[in-house]
Amino acid sequence: MVVDLGAGTGRLTAELARFAGHVIAVELDARLARSLRGRWPNVSVVEGDATRIRLPREPFRVVANLPFHRTTDLLHLLLDDPTTPLTRADLVVEWGVAFKRSFPWPSSITGRRVGRGLRSDARAPVGP
Question: Would residue 113 count as lying in a domain?
Fold first, then answer.
């Protein structure tokens, strides 16, 4: 199962639907959520605030281009509870967030570890 947080117009959802058994597309905007419904047989659309949804109780993966103004809240939702059955998260986040979250733990910049099997692929810029 794959969860798409902030599905928007469905560009990412469409690709996920091609490969995943079941996709949950979460979208706050009612108009966009309506446009997603019924387009793919294996996609369930949840209209609402992604920070307030009930996450799946079975193992799931998240693939999302997180809304930059909600990134911290969504990371808390996904990572704070160690019983959440999140198996992997592939996230597009703002550069500053990726940089802060990729520091080795413990760090004074971030109060928590990326951890739980997740990895940060963020790379610091190379320069003089």
Answer: no
Q: How far apart are CA 71 and CA 97, in angstroms?
A: 8
Within 1-128, strands assigned E span 2-5, 23-27, 43-47, 60-65, 86-92
Domain count, the chain: 1
Residue-number span of the structural domain to which 90 is assigned = 2-101
Asked if the structure places residue 8 within a domain, the reply is yes
CA separation for the pair 23, 60 (Å, rounded): 10
The CATH number of the domain holding residue 62 is 3.40.50.150
Q: Where are the beta strands (DSSP E) in 12-127?
A: 23-27, 43-47, 60-65, 86-92
> Do the domain assignments include residue 39?
yes
- Measured CA distances, 115 to 16, 38, 68, 76, 126 (Å): 24, 36, 21, 13, 25
pTM: 0.75
Segment 40-74, tens digit of pLDDT: 999 999 999 999 999 999 999 999 888 888 888 99
Residue pair 71/11 in contact by the 8 Å Cβ criterion: no
Token duo for residue 36: 């997603």
Residue 114 located in a structural domain: no
